[in-house]
Each structure stands twice: as C-alpha cells, then as structure tokens.
Amino acid sequence: MTRPVKVARVPGRSRAIELSLLSWVLFASSGPLAAAVMVEGWSPAAVTSVRIGSAAVLLVLVVALWRPRALRFGRGDLWLLLGYGLLGVAGVQLLFFVAVARVPVGVAMVLVNLAPALVALWIRGVRGTRLPGSVWAGIGLALAGLVLIAQVWHGARLDPVGVAAGLGAAACSAGFFLLGEHGASRHDPFGMTAVGLVIGAVVMVVVVPPWTLPFDRLTLSAVLGGSDFPVWVVLLVLAVAGTVVPYLAGLWALRDLPAPLAGVLAMVEPVVATVLAWLLLGQGLRPAQLAGAAILLVGAILVQRAMP
Predict the structure, then answer these.
(1) Which residues form the signal peptide (predicted)?
(2) In Å, how far from its chain's centre is CA 245?
(3) Distance in angstroms (rounded) separating the CA atoms of residues 272 and 24
(4) Residue 76: pLDDT band by 50, 70, 90 thresholds?
(5) How far apart are CA 29 and CA 151, in angstroms?
(6) Which of 7, 46, 78, 107 is the 20 to 30 A CA-CA neighbour of 95?
C-alpha cells in the first residue's frame, strides 16, 4: 500500500512573510513622507526622481564596498535586470503618479493593486500551474477590502488615460513580483536591488532632468506628526527607509515566498498608509475603511493558508 507523501513546510516561509510585510509597511511610510515634501512645492515626479536616485547612489556605494561580488552579472541577466528596473522600480511609480493626476487616489490604488490577480492569471495561464480556489477567493476578498479602504465612490470619475496608467502600474507591479521571484532565486538581492535602482534612476533622469529639481527648497521645513523637519532630512529617510530597505526586504522575501502570496501581502500597504496618514497628517478614518482593512487582512490570511 502506497503511503501518502507528507509535504514539508517550506523553510523560511514565516521569515519571508515577515520580510514581505516589513517591506510593504516601509513602502507605505513613503506616502506620508512624500506628501509632506510635496506640500513644500516639490512635484510627485521630482520627489520620485530624488528618492530613486539617492537610493541608487547609497546602495551601490554600500554594495560596492561591502559586497562587490553581488554586482557581478552575466550577459544573460541583462533582460532580467532591465525588466526589473524598468517595471519594478521606474514603471510602477511613474504610471501610478500619472493615474493619480487623472483619477481619484482611491481609484488609482484599486487599479494598481490588481497586480495579485494579474500574477495569479500569469501563473495559471503561462506557467500552467493550477491554484486552489481559496487563493482566488482570498484575492477577491482582499480587493473588496481595498475598495472599502480607498472609498472609490467619493468623487469618482473615469479618465481613459488615468485608467490605462493605473492598469499599466498594476502590470508593472506584477512584473516586480514575477521577475523578483525569478531573480531572487539566482542572484544576491543586494546586487539585483542596486542595479534595479540604478536603471530606475536613469529613467527618472530622462523624465525629470536634475537641473529642473527645486534644490532651493531642500532647507524648507516639512511637517510630520506636528513636528518640523528639514525637507532634505525627509528625502533622505524616504530614500533609505522608504526605498532601499523595502526593496531589499521584498526581494529577499521572494526567495521563499510564492509571487501570488507576495502580491496579496502587498495590499497591506494601503492599510498602513491610511493609518499613517491619520497619525502623521491628521487625515480621518471612516468606519468603512476599518471594515475594509479587516476584510483585506482576512483575504491575505486565506491566500497564505491556501498556498502550497
């Protein structure tokens, strides 16, 4: 009689979930930080350019001095690195800002967070891997919770370019998970993150030339949580804690975390961003948003338990 095969728990899965959640909590902190800087006259594109450029310079210097072997790649890795930098670093942020400029922020958030569904569809259609029905149910619950958090019915308007940009941001985000999952299994996350940030920084230099940045506003004060901080300090924190660390943590998590689960965990970002906006910027929370957060977390737990 054949005994059933006992599937062992994937080593590092719990640690990977912790790293992924840390990544998205830190990404969420970038929203209030960037908002405080933009109040002082910085455009979203300018903040993104300084954020990615500073992060790239800092991480490349650290990796070159401390872990130089991480920066060694072969010719066959070119397309992987270009895809990761163009989609996962520059594409997500640029297209999201285009969407925000044309449709309400809540609608843009819902559109970009369609990424987990796109990842699941890719895995099912391209890889031919069947996913449990509870994974799809969890993704649906998470999206429903996100709709409540985003309050999309407040002043909702549809602009074709804005909707297209939001869907493009979702596709780029899906590329971040899929390419990151592939690259993290083959390369050092430090090296891949550093090169990805450099590629993203080059794109941002083309979009926002350095001489157009409002450097004269670096010494102004940004208000966070009722306290004043120099704009340059907030931008530095945004580059390190809001960019370098979360990208590293997210890529490291993808070594032991399936892309669909990582995508659903990313939906924690708008929950944390909403709470931080309440704490740091004084923006209120509605009961529907709290209910949406609970539904989203239930969906994430469902996906986590269902993933093999």
Answers:
(1) none
(2) 12
(3) 8
(4) confident
(5) 20
(6) 78
296 Cβ partners below 8 Å, 6+ apart? 141, 142, 144, 145, 146, 149, 267, 268, 271
Chain-centre distance of CA 3, in angstroms? 43
Q: Are 92 and 115 in contact (CB under 8 A)?
A: no
Burial class of 257 by CB neighbour count within 10 A (0 to 12, 13 to 18, 19+) = buried
Confidence of residue 308 (pLDDT cuts 50, 70, 90): low
Tokens of 238: 């945004």
Q: Write down the pLDDT at residue 14.
A: 79
Asked if 276 and 31 touch (Cβ cutoff 8 Å), the reply is yes
Q: Determine what percent of the chain falls in helix, strand and coil, rounding each to the nearest 5.
A: 75, 5, 20
Question: What is the 8-class DSSP label of residue 127?
Answer: S
CA distance 30 to 44: 12
Phi first, then psi, for residue 226 (nearest 5°) are 85, 0
* Ramachandran region, residue 151 (left: φ > 0; alpha: ψ -120 to 50; beta: rest): left
- Answer for the pair 240, 170: CB distance below 8 angstroms, yes or no: no
- Between the alpha carbon of residue 17 and those of residues 37, 83, 209, 249, 295, the distances in Å are 31, 24, 38, 10, 19
* pLDDT tens string 93-134: 888 777 766 766 666 777 777 787 888 888 777 777 777 777
Give the relative orientation of helices 105-112 and 92-102 as an angle to the nearest 10 degrees: 140
Encoded tokens for 116: 């987990």
Average pLDDT over residues 269-296: 67
Residue labelled with tokens 């449990």: 132
Q: Rounded to two decimals, what is the model's pTM? A: 0.78
